[in-house]
Design a protein that fits this description.
Elements (H helix, E strand, L loop, with lengths): L9 E5 L5 H11 L3 E4 L6 H17 L4 E4 L2 H7 L3 E4 L6 H8 L4 E6 L2 H7 L6 E4 L16 H10 L4 E3 L8 H6 L4 E4 L1 H4 L4 H16 L2
Parallel strand pairs: 1-2, 1-8, 2-3, 3-4, 4-5, 5-6, 6-7, 7-8
Helix pairs in contact: 1-2, 1-9
Length: about 210
């Protein structure tokens, strides 16, 4: 069976914000092809309310919508799936809750975490952050080598996190990386559609070269 994320390249991870529906719609119009809502500080009702709107936007354009950390809310919403970290619900529990067809992503930051992650039923893994980033406070960068190694070893797509920009993508692709998670390059952009288009162009131009 073909992995549902095999050809998905540009993954937006966003917190709650005042213009969330418009922002996400603009980012998708620019080339984002998977969206995650990652909000660590809001209550479940607030997250669910925002996620319901985003899920509808994503469904309309066949873009997977993922919730961070909360398989229970993902089940309630009926969205594409969930992404969990090393200290969150295990992949096996997410799979029990959401079923065999859901997307379940798992963060990895070190070789032993990758080794364990590859034994799970995760749909995809993330590797990084390759550079330290404010979105992961207190976590040191893994360096590019870890993401490259993870991509070579894993049988599922590996999405690279940390330090992804239109400027860095060509060298990341040259190193063998093809799937990218973006936070600040989009969330801090004054024109998210244009920023997404620039990221998408950098990916497509270098992967297809």
């Amino acid at each position: 069976m073909t992995n549902p994320l095999a050809l998905r390249r540009l993954y937006l991870c966003t917190p709650l914000r005042d213009d969330l529906p418009t922002f996400v719609a603009e980012a998708i119009a620019g080339g984002v092809d998977i969206v995650q809502l990652r909000e660590k500080h809001a209550d479940a009702a607030t997250i669910l309310s925002a996620a319901r709107v985003l899920n509808a936007i994503c469904e309309d354009v066949d873009v997977p919508f993922i919730l961070n950390d909360r398989p229970d809310l993902a089940l309630e919403l009926g969205c594409s799936g969930v992404h969990v970290g090393q200290d969150d619900a295990p992949v096996s529990l997410c799979r029990q809750i959401l079923g065999p067809d859901a997307i379940v992503g798992l963060s990895t930051h070190a070789p032993h975490e990758l080794e364990v992650g590859m034994t799970t039923s995760a749909t995809y893994l993330s590797a990084g952050p390759i550079e330290a980033t404010p979105t992961k406070p207190g976590r040191a960068g893994t360096g590019r080598g870890y993401a490259v190694s993870a991509t070579r070893l894993a049988e599922v797509p590996v999405f690279v996190t940390g330090g992804v920009s239109a400027e860095t993508i060509p060298s990341l692709v040259a190193a063998g990386l093809e799937h990218f998670v973006v936070v600040r390059a989009l969330t801090e952009a004054t024109d998210p559609r244009r920023a997404a288009a620039e990221l998408r162009d950098a990916i497509d131009r270098t992967i297809d070269a």
